[in-house]
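Teaching assistant here, posting this on the class forum so everyone can see the example we discussed in section. The complex has two components, and the goal was to see what a joint structure prediction looks like when all of them are supplied at once.
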Amino acid sequence: MRFSDAARPELGDPAARRGRRRAAAEARGRRADAVGGFPGWEALREAGAAIRERTLRELGTHLETLEAAVEEEGGHVHWARDAAEARRIIDSLLPDDVPAALVRSDVTDEIGLDGAEPGPHSKAAVVGAGFLVAETGTLVVAERGDGLSFPGTLVAVAGIEDVVPGWTDLEVLLQLVSRAGAGVPMRPAISTRTGDFALVLLDNGRTTVLADPDGRAALRCVHCSACSDVCPVFQRTGPRPYGPGRAGPIGAVLTPQVRGVEAPLGASLPFASTLCGACADVCPVKIDIPAMLVHLRGRVVDARRGRPVPPPEMLLMRGLAWSMGDERRYEHTLVRRARWARLLARDGRIRRLPGLFGKWTDARDLPAPPRQSFRAWWRRRR
Amino acid sequence: MRIAVFVTCWGDALFPATGRAVVRLLEHLGHEVVFEPAQTCCGHMHWTAGYHPEAIALARRLTEVFAGHDVIVTPSASCAATVRTAYPRMDPALAGLPVYELSELLVDVLGVTDVGARYPHRVTYQPTCHSLRALGLGDRPLRLLRAVRDLELADLPEAGECCGFGGAFAVKNADTSVAMVADKIARIHETGADVVCATDDSCLTHLGGALSRLRSGVRAVHLAEILASGLGAAGPAPVPGGVARRADAP
């Protein structure tokens, strides 16, 4: 479904909208406190971006190191191409007779797992990993007060990009996630576990994202949710219109890359933004989400160029580009369209436009174009 | 100083008063303003809508049209940001066109904050996203507004949040866009201002269009028009560069 269609019912719930605005404002306030008084914040962001960029560039090497380290500690690594394969592997690793608890994460949501939080008596658990430290084969999960120390079967699941080369890199990333996401200098509880777990590493479209040099930086994401907290679109629509993948600005750049830009959701998500830039300003690993959205918009349009019957928008945009390619054509178009628009105006304002622009005048007027353009005025005054 | 003005396609067709105000203001400050008649569009709309080859052709054209000019001013933060941040991405050869947004030109290049204007209104200022984040204009527009005689400046709550325009966004995601502008207008009304000011006629079309539909009584006015108001009536404005002052435009 297109983002705009999925957004309509969400926008129609003013109480939910107010709740999201309030929660986001509180999150923004906490974040501003956590990074505002921290003099090294910009340097830390630079370091974090560099760590993530380097990790993605040599991802294969780090994954091999991780696999070797996990197996050396007695664990085992499984590779899943997609969500269905990940679920199959996880099922086969869990004992049949006890229900498995779940520590959820974006990845466990992505593959559609649900279950209760683990308690002291849990016999088996699936854990969405925060990070995986390659050099020691260590699983890292934030905000787990009870730790990962319970006996029994533990299956960790992570995206292939969640690997971190070493502990010094992890230290930088944890500070960034804590300050940008939770708005605290360091999350009170970070649990780690080395050895004695099975690890499922999920691709599910990530290698496709890695192959696009203009889109791969989206995989730098450290899942802090700061971009959603500042996004004016997300605050109005909530997570649902972003579809089954990640929500918010990062989802708008990841989902079209993973699912392609032809279907309605993937084709509309890159346009579900005003390009206001608030997300890029707060991203702790400096993902330039607006630039990436513009890149993906180009891919959406390119995918439509081959259609035998061009859509109305494409005819309009090509026509405008042709007109603007020459000042005489441009002025001719300007004069003709302005004259036509003035016919629709009453008392200097247009309240109803036909066609593509009808969506504008549903809720907004347009001023009637003046009789004299700037260039006409300039010519007369010389 | 000899300053070339890039009025933008949107301003040329829909808001010529903004371009006229820029000319009046700069001539009042003693500068020579030139208009390259071959100018059309910077390509911003095509670039952000995903029509990249078309945008690059327009960017090349604009770069050629303004070749040889040392100082170019535009009353649009979006168009200035397109030239500065998007052009180098389109083609590294397109980097470096010396385009300044109006408040940058005044404060940074010409060193003026008091232009001698008078504007007896309560004004609130909406920092547009491109002026705030892409250009980093900071408080330059506010410093210019504070120096305007009889102007009462009212702080806009949550000023840094987008008004919901976003070019094609306003049409492609019209419901979300309208939800955003409704919240923005509520904040504007809280200020008690009778004028909302910004550095971009595109965002002002959106704000003004919604204010007009609501018959709110608050007007959306470009910074250039405020700065060009009542010139000559107030005390003498600084004339940097020793250029002879010309008479105000008719």
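For the discussion questions: Residues 3-32+208-305 of chain A form a domain with the Fumarate Reductase Iron-sulfur Protein; Chain B, domain 2 fold (CATH 1.10.1060). The radius of gyration of chain A is 25 Å. Think about how each of these relates to the inputs above.
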